[in-house]
Design brief:
- The protein has 525 residues and is of the alpha/beta class.
- The chain has two domains: 176 residues, Sandwich (Immunoglobulin-like), CATH 2.60.40; 341 residues, Glycosidases (TIM Barrel, Alpha-Beta Barrel).
- The protein is 25% helix and 24% strand.
- It is built from 13 helices and 21 strands.
- The strands form four sheets. It has a nine-stranded mixed beta sheet with strand order 19-18-21-16-15-14-1-17-20. An eight-stranded parallel beta sheet has the order 2-3-6-9-10-11-12-13. A two-stranded antiparallel ribbon has the order 4-5.
- α9 packs parallel to α10.
Length: 525
Amino acid sequence: MKPWRFLSLLLPVLSLSLPAMGQRVITADLGQIKGPRSMSWQDCTGAGRVAEGLRDTWRRQLEECHREIGFKYLRMHGLLQDELGVYSQDAQGNPRYNWQYIDDVYDYLLSIGVKPFVEFGFMPSALASGNTKMFWWQANVTPPKDYAKWDALITALVRHWTERYGETEVKTWRFEIWNEPNYPGFWHPPQNSNPRDEYFKLYEHTARAVQSVSTNYLVGGPAGAGPAWTAELIDLCVQKDIPINFISYHAYGLGDGPSGLDEYGNRNLYLSGDMQSVARIVNSQRPIIEKSARPGLPIYITEWSASYSPRDPVHDAYFSAAFILEQLRHTESVGCMSYWTFTDVFEENGPPPRPFHGGFGLINAQGIRKPAFWAWQFLADLGPTEVKNSDASSYVCTDPAGGAQVLLWDTTHPTGGKVSNQSFFFHPQPAADLGSVAVKLKHLAPGDYLLTVRRIGDHANDPYSRYLELGSPADLNPAAVAELKGLSTGRPVSETSVTVPASGTFETSLPLHANDVYLVTLKRK
């Protein structure tokens, strides 16, 4: 943190006064309750593939995220990948199953209180109809060559989970069928076939196999690259009495749309000019579902982020924290907003080339927490009851102990959509001065409080800006790792004792810069 940025920070004023011209003002009456706040943001997070879950660094970072953010489910690729040894055949073509590595990872998840959001994919080579593969770890993306053997594999695996963990547990899981079948890179059916029809065949077989073990198990899809085939999949399931319990798809914030791939970081990518682009994609399918024969189906967003590239520096920049909060604030009606991903221990395009490389994770491979991590952690520190307030980019909440919390942020487009993320975010970006923001609360219980202010922004819980100042080294020695971790601790920028008078009014003013995030808490003494 740059000390000069906060020379004027935090002299609380305990009477309401007119704001300075141009000042942003957030007002809330704590007696005006909106209700329990939405917790869909906490439902799930993502990880690259199941095999990475065998690693200690991956596990320690998941425990951090579960403990401090509260993620309840985890979704991963590669469940049936050859490296896990799940499926093979003997010389006569008889199937052989091996659940040992899956058990190792799933036992661990459940031991720390995280449930699997199962993604069935990709295709074991011995069962694959073709050789088309994706990623550094060679995920086979072709349909099964023998659906009877595929059905038997899915049934055997789900039955194994039921025997190992019990139906009471497994019926709380979710089973998603494949990943982004509307994007050719992830679904390669035979030439001249219809990709949608081939996916619907896979969906039907897989959904029926899952529910052949228990009709209580939850299945859904199509896990689209952007909204895809929503109405058509629902119609198919209704017409053929195929199980479907949720609709899933993905949403990314790039200007060239939610689909596509930048596996090796070779493209110039541009943020959408719409700073609620992800939210608009997320909300686009609700009217379609409501008009369908299954209007109550929940929406699960099983991947989302500012960018679909694992080499996009927007993921490391302080801008991402405000972007994340802006999307989550406007997607509270969906059942799940699973961020892609919690960790940079992620190898779709090979091992990470340097400590900060634009990886998806909330935490980098050295365990350094990015600004994005703190956006989620700040949300986790809000009280359970939301109060009505006058500002769309903020939350005002209360807790049972009589405390109050205000989470606020600015969302300013950093590039105007005219400069690529690679050209912009690989260089230091000082934040523009936006003046100040006033927080005014009414009907707070009179008495003594501890006022705490925490911030995310330029050089505040922002190790990436310091990494750029160090010259973006390919390696970090232990002292440099310690320095960068020390710049991203979530510690308050100020703590002050205040007394709320009998009138119950409280006011404070904070300096505001582009894409700042503040968490202001009042804890009753």
